[in-house]
Amino acid sequence: MNYTENYRGIKIDVQSVNLDIDGAVQEEIRSSIDKLSKFTQDINAVDVYFKTEGQGGTAKHVVGMRVGIPGPDVFAEDKGDHWVPLLKDVVDKLVRQLKKSK
Description:
- The chain has 102 residues and is of the alpha+beta class.
- Helix content is 33%, strand content 37%.
- The protein has a single domain, classed as Ribosome hibernation promotion factor-like (Double Stranded RNA Binding Domain), CATH 3.30.160.
- The longest helix is centred in the last third of the chain and has 19 residues, at 83-101.
- It holds the Pfam family Ribosomal_S30AE.
């Protein structure tokens, strides 16, 4: 499932390979953008990637997020078992990068 939306002037592009992203995860993506916006007002676009690596009981979810800002973009990725906590961890990593770049 892939979808694109415009949220507060920021283009969000979500890509998930053979996965359906439910409304709770979509709302968490918007909440994540609100949090990132506190650290920079210059966000042009956000790309979010969801995928699953492995199969069966050893499968791990992977979430990656690229934030398009003037200059070099920031990117973070994390692996784990649940989408929402992974998304929060990725946002925390991005916040640290944005703080460093100031």
